[in-house]
Each structure stands twice: as structure tokens, then as C-alpha cells.
Amino acid sequence: MVDLSVRIGGLTLANPVMPASGTFAEGLARVIPLDRLGAFVTKTIMREPRAGNPVPRVAEAGDGMLNSIGIPSKGVAPFLAETVPFYRGYGPPLVVSISAHSADEFAVLAREVTVEGVAAIEANISCPNIEADGRAFAMEPGTTAAVVERLRAATPLPLWAKLTPNTGDVAAVARAAEAAGADAVVVANTILAMSINVESFRPTLGNVMGGLSGPAVKPIILRMVYQCARAVGIPVIGCGGISTADDAVEYLLAGASAVQVGTASFIHPTALTSVIDGLEGFCARRGIDRVADLVGAVAEGPVAEGPAAEVAW
Amino acid sequence: MSTTALADRGYQAEAAELELPVVSNLPVNGEYRHLVLEAGAPATLAEAGQFFHLLCPASGADRPFFRRPMSTYRADRAAGRIEFLYKVTGAGTRGLATLVPGDRLNVVGPLGTGFRLDPAWASIVVLGRGVGLATLAPLAELAASAGVRVTAILSARSPDLVMSADRFRAAGAEVFPVLDSDGSSDPGRVGKLVSGLVRLGRADAFFTCGSNRLLALMKRLGREHGIPGQVALEQQMACGLGMCFCCVRAFEVEGRHVSRRVCWDGPVFPLEEAVSW
Predict the structure, then answer these.
(1) Does the model's ipTM exceed the 0.90 cut?
(2) Domain count within chain A
């Protein structure tokens, strides 16, 4: 039997597959057994209630999607009163995604969600920082370090920093998060993008610009996971265009210790359980006893001959 | 037994992702097509007003990425079928139109919250237009099984586009087709027809779908006469399960605007809270 468990900081997950924040909610329980998942990651909450962005909030973009949802949120009180208790009824650990427009507000919210039933905090530091002219915290190592230090001081829970791909040096940002006390980095959020309808001359999103996700971004984010995994000692959680077990294996080989499945769940609500089943099947087929053995196992260097050198057309 | 099977024991999905065989996919008039799929539970347990999320196949240059939500025209448990009426309007429905018997279509469902009949209602008025006629059709049998008398006002541009009339008649409803081609679909004339039904005591509740003007009309008449109602609404969707928050619309609740997810809180909403667009 394949051991699918992985360790992320102080947390042991039954398997390395969890939903990406913003693509998961209670409704998925209608279609798949939630107890199968490695962890739950809730949609990002901010302290105050928010309406979100104007529609259209999503658009198709080739083999991917653009979104600008705008973090609509009921605020922290209903989250603690309704959402956290819902997930207490299940086995997998609950990871709460939080965001804020300042380091102070981030710290307050981290304290507020440090309650029984919450196993870890994922800090969505890819959102605009009003103290840095609206630039996302995770665009710079300095602002990343500053906010992660405040978060680290605010909560004893395992702390995951969700990084943005919209930066010149994601490995430097990951190092800054590690140095400031993050227990893991999630690589990455969506890629800033836009599209325009040539019939109407209008942007396809109500908010004009949004984030690109789905299969289209996978090679880019995979490269970032590879870079981050080589740069830090803490676990990297891969998140970008994972739809199949093979995609998950690719991320593990690149150095991810666990993966998040996001956009794929919108197309196939069974994507999360399919990836878990497929991972188990892959390991069994390849005679791999522990899925953790795949982490960072990418084989580099030239291949002179053998099956790996053969190209199947 | 594997760990997987152990963890799944006792789990019962309310909705499922299914690959369903196509039974038929034929035009019903100059604009709409009728898609019939072979299905079992939970798909055939779809309630009136619930929808399915269809993974429309690629065709020609079209590569639809998102699923397309489609209201259930009929869910027939005994025959083991679910049915849809659709009009080809874009990349997704162009793909649907290519399906032939023996193909399989990936569907997720049934999804959403459907129509509800209050046991206190003896008679209802159903007013629909366009593809809304397909959405309202399952009300015919739902009302008949509850012993509720139905008057169905079916609005269309021309006689050949009046869909679901046979469904309503077969279930014992009185049917009034109203048409653009003879001017009978004018909201003023439809309003008089509905007001007449109110006076006759045949309108304990209103049900509508498919037209902004008819929604506004039913909402106004409902307010004037103190008659409750339900409306089925559409919005672009991604997940269909209340996770992505892209299909929101504004509703009016006690004088305040609130945002609701069409896929999760609806697609059927109280008429008095709906905001015409």
C-alpha cells in the first residue's frame, strides 16, 4: 500500500492534495466526499464584509480562466460562527486563508482566526498593500518579510505564505518569507492578465484586469516552484494549473511537498479525488512506497540512451 | 479494502459528475434543439427549476473551457432520461449541437435550488418566454402532482417557438400562447390577462422565467395584488457549486441590496426580491 502522507511544517496531511483558496466551499460536499482531501483551504477572508467586484467576474482565456472576483466576504464573525464549525465535522485539517491591506490588519485577523478547529493559516499576501501604493506584499522581499514577521508574532499556528507570480524574483521572496518565520510557501497565486472582446471593444472582466489560472499557467508556476524549492528549506506547496495526477507528480518532482488544485475543480468537481486516486495509482505502478519520495526527485543532466531518450510521436 | 473505499463508505452524493450517453439531439423548431440523455440517479431526481452543468464538446475552432449551466427541461426517473431545450448562441451550444446518439456528454448535477409550491396555493400562473419556457416546463407535472391548477401564459415571437405547451396541456393546465407576430405578447396585454386571472382567483402565486420585461411585470402585479412569486434567473457561471462567486446578482431584501449566487442560492428566487436588469 502506498503511503500518501506528507508533512508540511508541523502538520501531517493524509495525502498531498488540497483545494486552492477561492475554488472550494461547502458546496463541493454535494459531489465528492470531503474526508478524502489532504486538507481544506477556505476562500480568503478579510476582516470587514466586502461586496466584491462588478460582473463579469470570470472569462475563458484559452486553456485557462481569468478572474477578478474581488474577495467578496461576510467578514470574520460569520466565518468563525458558520464556516469553521462546518469543517469541524470532517477529518482533514482546516487551513484558513486570510488577507488584509496592511500588516497591522493582517496581524489582527491572524489572531482572530487562531481558534479551535483551525489547523493552519494561509496568508494571501498577493493582494494590494495600501501602505505600498497598492503593490502586493509578495512582490518584494522587504514587504514580504515585514508582513510575515507580524503574522508570525500574532499566531502560534503553522503559517503558510501564498506568494504571487507577479514578481521578478520569486525565490528571493520565498527566502524572505522563510527568514521571517513562515512554515511553508504556497507557489503561487494567479498571473495578472486581461483580455478584450473585439466585438464590443470591452474588457472581458468587469474589473478590466484579473488573474490567469488553469492549465495555461502550469509551466510558468512549475518553474517557480522549482526555483523556490531550491531556494528554501521549508516546504513548498505547488499551485498552478494542476488538473490531473500527472500534473501533481510533475509538481512533486519539481520540489513541491504538496499541491493545490484550483480551477480544475470548476471544470471537473471530482478533480481533487481523481488526482488523489491517480497519485496512488502512479506510485503503485512505479513501485514507489511513499509519495514523499517524489518530492524534488526530478532527474537532471543529459540522457544518452534508454527509454527517456525516446520520443513518442 | 483500500483506504479510499473506507473513507468513502456511507457517502452519498447529492449531485454527480457523469458521462451520459446521448439518446437524441434534434431540432424542435427553427431555433431550439432538444437533447435527451440516458441517466440514472441522482441526475433523474432533479427537481423542477434545478439545472445541470454541461461540459460542452469542442467543435470547429471552439474550445469551450467552462461548463455551461442548462436548466432541466425534463427529468424522468421511470424512463431513465434527462432532457434539455437549448438554442445555439455560442461556443458551448455550438458544441452541444454536434452531439449524435451514442456520444457521451459529461454533466454535473442536479444543481441549485428549484421551484417550491406552498401547500396553501390552489392555483398558480406561469408566465415564460424564450428558453424560459423550458425552465418552467417541469412545473407542469410538479403542480399537477400537488393538485395545483395551472394557467400557463407562453410568450414567443411566432407560433412555432411556443415550447412546452403540450407539456402543460397534458398535465391539465390551461394554456394561453401569446405572440409577437399578432401583438398579443405586448406586456400591456399580458398584464391585463394576468390581472383577469387574479380577479378570477386563479393566481395564488406567480412563476416566471426568460424575460426581463415579464419579470418586471410580474413583480409589479405581485406587489399590487399581494401575490408571492418565484423567478428562475440566469448568470454566467464557472463552478456551479457556490465556490467561485462569479454568478452573483443583486437582490432587494427589506430595502437593501444584497448579492446572491445564482448557482447556489438560486437559480430560483423569490420574485419580490429579484431586481430586473
Answers:
(1) yes
(2) 1
